[in-house]
Amino acid sequence: MMTRILVAVDGSTQAAVAIEMGVHLASKLGAELALLNVSEPPPAVVMADMPVCDIEPPAVRLQSARALLKKIRQSIPATMNVEELVADGHPAAQIVATAQDWNADLIILGTHGLGGIARLILGSTATTVMHKADCPVLIARGRAQRNRRSGAQREAKQGSIC
Predict the structure, then answer these.
(1) Buried residues in 58-84 as b, exposed as e (16+ CB within 10 A)
(2) Comparing 33 with 154, which gets the higher pLDDT?
(3) Could you tell me the residue ranges of all domains in the chain?
(4) How far apart, in whole angstroms, are the C-alpha atoms of residue 51 and residue 28?
(5) What is the pLDDT of residue 51?
(6) For 140-152, what is the mean pLDDT?
(7) What is the pLDDT of residue 56?
(8) Closest CA to 38 of 61, 14, 12, 13
(9) Structurally, what CATH architecture does the domain formed by 4-41+49-122+131-159 represent?
């Protein structure tokens, strides 16, 4: 039985779909719901063989993460009890670690739907979480991806003989 649902959010359209799913499932199952925003440090920059320090300190990033969660919380029914969690670090690693620490029964997160070279270069948080998490992972695909895919399918149908 799923009693603890963790939804990873980043303020994107895809995360909004994940939040909708999480709220719906938590209310139907009577489960606890937690929102997690991971503040990712910017990549290290090296200029003239000298490393440049992290421009935004972790405390400032975490404050921004908390502000985002407060904003998201306003879109969720006030009667629903929601825990707001923040972490600093690599998103996939922090999502998996938080799910373990919080004893999540399910992780829900959105995906940007990167494919091909973009995914190879940038990696995929969703894929990493799916492979490393100890609990089930539900990937919420945004409406934009469905519309794009259905448009491509329509084009393929129009050009086909069948």
Answers:
(1) eeebbeebeebbeebeeebeeeeebeb
(2) 33
(3) 4-41+49-122+131-159
(4) 50
(5) 59
(6) 53
(7) 76
(8) 61
(9) 3-Layer(aba) Sandwich (3.40)
Longest dimension (CA), the chain: 62
Picking from 91, 93, 74, the residue whose alpha carbon sits closest to that of residue 82 is 74
Bridge partners, residue 139, by sequence: 109
Angle at CA 100, nearest 5°, toward 86 and 14?
Answer: 55
pTM of the entire predicted model: 0.79
Neighbours of 106 (CB within 10 A): 22
* E strand residue ranges, the chain: 4-8, 32-39, 45-47, 50-52, 82-88, 106-111, 137-141
Overall size of the chain counted in residues: 162
